[in-house]
Amino acid sequence: MMYWNKPSECMDRKKLEELQSQQLVKTIERVYYNVPYYRNLMQEKGIMPEDIKGLEDLSKLPFTTKDDLRNNYPYGLFAVPLSEIVRIHASSGTTGKPTVVGYTREDITTWSELMARTLACGGASKHSVIQVAYGYGLFTGGLGVHYGAERLGASVIPISGGNTKRQVMLMRDFGTTVLACTPSYALHIAEVMKEMKVPRSELKLKYGILGAEPWTEELRKEIEEKLGITAIDIYGLSEIIGPGVASECQYKNGLHIWEDHFIPEIIDPKTGEVLPEGCEGELVFTTITKEGIPVIRYRTRDISSLNYEPCPCGRTHVRMHKVLGRTDDMLIIRGVNVFPSQIESILINIGDTEPHYLLVIDRVGNMDSLEVWIEVSENLFSDEVRKLESLKHRIANEIYSTLGLSAKVKLVEPKTIERSQGKAKRVLDRRK
Amino acid sequence: MTVKQISVFLENRKGRLAQVTSVLSQNNIDISAISIAETTNFGIIRMIVNKPELALKVIKEAGFTVNTADVLAVEVPDCPGGLHQVLEIMYDNNISIEYLYSFVRRPSQKALILFKLDETDKAIKALKKEDINILSSQEVYEL
């Protein structure tokens, strides 16, 4: 069994909980004195930092949501001056404004440590050649995995996403042993490899470290068969730190959450009540070591459950179930977070006062495809084909510049899209 | 001097066109001219009918997206060069044609061409100067 940091990963649970309590108290003090938003919120609720003595007081604290981050755009929740921030990442928001996170030098060190653990947990080591096919840039995927892989001492190929034929060529020529990307992209690479007639025997690939989107056990089986690898699920979100929040071990039975840095809870998404072990509900995280932007009880909107039973791998950290779904209408298409409301704002901006639309998501040739059906209202309609065609292109361009996703736009007749109780159905997800 | 054209958005699906003509027939509306522009997944019906206001209302009520456009109805002799003479006038006056469609009336040996233009007023002037006959709405409906 390969650990990156055995003392931390296999820490006695009682000690781990003590550590969490201490770190929680420090974090609450820090946000109270350094983040006006949290100070005001705690004062409103009548909570003083000294009221939080340990883990048992966690549930007294208010939740943080994606909206709170957006309302404090861009730097409002930072707990340090910008001079201490060495990196800024952002993820897409629901209305165009992204969610912004900042890292201090120490945060980058923590993140690299946690990603190194994650990679080791998934089977990588300093002898690995890791091809990072997550996107590099504002998205945390590429750089997060990159820093962790370097920390691990592996040889990193920072190829980023796209150009699949080149991915296959380098994978063969450079002797890649670990592929890091989204599960749907891994499957696409397998397909392209087959088209290029590159035999599996020419590859040294052993592991896939796959995340950034929910995927099923069926998809795992398919990827493992087609690429001849062990496929490991990893979990993370930029609001918490990026990739490296949790990872499966070789037993592939739940993802170990790195509890010496994050405290997980499962709550009832309707009441906010904390649910007991094993119950399905919304996953909530409190960061206890982060400096740049500590977050208190962040509601991920991801549905999961927690399992504290000891794992045969020897790690003591709690395991979260593979993400089971979402509590909101967020979609993940080719690793990009998409809210139907983003499409709606685009249509309104284009002059469609009451847009009726449907996002049809499918998996074509193992790649997610997005089709946007739009009912042609009188405002949009023209008797000239040229104008309707240019309308289609304009919408597709707007979607691309807002989401970075190419979509196929289809114009349909009024009332084509099903209405349920007066409200239109916005999403038809044919993947799965 | 222009004629009201009814334009209807249609998806390329079986039976959609018949749905429109059925509504018109039930309301006793006569179609004088019709054309369909098609693309890979949608089409636009363009037609001249004798009761445009009523047609607009009933087609809309049937759940279609419909609007009206002003087109120019030009009469040309049904013989070689008939259409060409008109197009030459358009070209000489730098008028762009968005689309056109036509139909022929046998007894009078005349053809009717319907034009959607970028500069309709300019075209009317230019055609009149060359003594080309432009039909009014009433004349078209009575054909």
Brief overview:
The complex is a heterodimer of chains A (432) and B (143). By secondary structure, chain A is an alpha/beta fold.
Task: List the SSEs and their pairings.
The complex is a heterodimer of chains A (432) and B (143).
Chain A: H1 6-9, H2 13-34, H3 36-44, H4 66-71, E1 85-91, E2 99-104, H5 105-121, E3 129-132, H6 140-152, E4 155-157, H7 164-173, E5 178-181, H8 183-195, E6 207-210, H9 217-227, E7 230-237, E8 242-248, E9 255-257, E10 262-267, E11 281-287, E12 298-304, E13 306-307, E14 319-320, E15 325-326, E16 331-333, E17 336-338, H10 340-349, E18 357-364, E19 367-375, H11 385-403, E20 408-412, E21 419-420, E22 423-424, E23 427-429
Parallel strand pairs in A: 3-4, 3-5, 5-6, 6-7, 18-23, 19-20
Antiparallel strand pairs in A: 1-2, 7-8, 8-9, 9-14, 10-11, 11-12, 12-15, 13-14, 16-17, 18-19, 21-22
Chain B: E1 3-11, H1 16-26, E2 31-38, E3 42-49, H2 52-61, E4 66-77, H3 82-92, E5 97-105, E6 110-117, H4 120-129, E7 133-134, H5 137-141
Antiparallel strand pairs in B: 1-3, 1-4, 2-3, 4-6, 4-7, 5-6
How does this model look, in words?
With 432 residues, chain A is α/β, with parallel strands linked by helices. Chain A has 2 domains: 328 residues, Rossmann fold (3-Layer(aba) Sandwich), CATH 3.40.50; 99 residues, ANL, C-terminal domain (GMP Synthetase, Chain A, domain 3). In chain A, the strands form 6 sheets. In chain A, strands 4-3-5-6-7-8-9-14-13 form a 9-stranded mixed β-sheet. In chain A, strands 10-11-12-15 form a 4-stranded antiparallel β-sheet. In chain A, strands 20-19-18-23 form a 4-stranded mixed β-sheet. With 143 residues, chain B is of the alpha+beta class. Chain B is 33% helix and 39% strand. Chain B contains 5 helices and 7 strands; from the N terminus they run βαββαβαββαβα. In chain B, a hairpin with a 4-residue loop joins β5 and β6.
